Amino acid sequence: MLLNNLKLALRNLRNQKSFAVLNILGLAVGIAAVLLIFRIVHYELSFNKNFQNYERIVRIVTKDVGLDGEESYTRGMPLPSMSVVKSTVPQFAATSKIKEYWPTVLVPNPTGGPALKKFNMGQDKISFFVEPEFFQIFDFQWLAGEKNSALKEPNTLVLTRKMAEMCFGNWENALGQTLLIENDPMTVQGVVADAPVNCDLPLSLVVSYSTILGNKEKYEYHEDWGSTSSNDQMFGL
User: Fold this and answer.
1) Residue 124 pLDDT > 90
2) Which residues are registered as beta bridge partners of 92?
């Protein structure tokens, strides 16, 4: 029975070649479209799953209410509100202030001559000021340094592997080295693995948040409730 049906199908294909080709092409296009859509959806749903606790990570946002009553939300927060969150919301296991930052990074010449390398941080090289708890929330893989203490002191920073290799050739040589961040010397206290492409934080370097507190004017640290910048953000776990 099956053999007869197969012979009949082949006979029809030979007799109606144009119709058969159109049907086969249509089937092939349909299968390709389904596979493509599956890959796109799978990619979009995979974002930030490199972090162990990705389902618990939240960004605290500011709710604005206009004169017409319309509500909107912004990622920026007044700096005093971040301190309130830290002290009054015990449900968070960890919180971290972060501040986006686009400095010029220099690799100093040990002989005192011109800098060996220069990098301008931007869209392809993203940097932040962060608190030590940042790496409790976003558990990047550590390659060198101590996660719990790397960013406790001012003028310290952590590099990704790619950034460390760009600066020093081999990431294993980075720990303890000095970089000039806007001409301020800062010590490399850690190296972490590069973030995957499906990550909302494709950072290159992070600087200790306590660095800001040592020079509030330079880093535009405005401690008033009426000042909100999208660069000043907060994440919690």
Assistant:
1) no
2) none
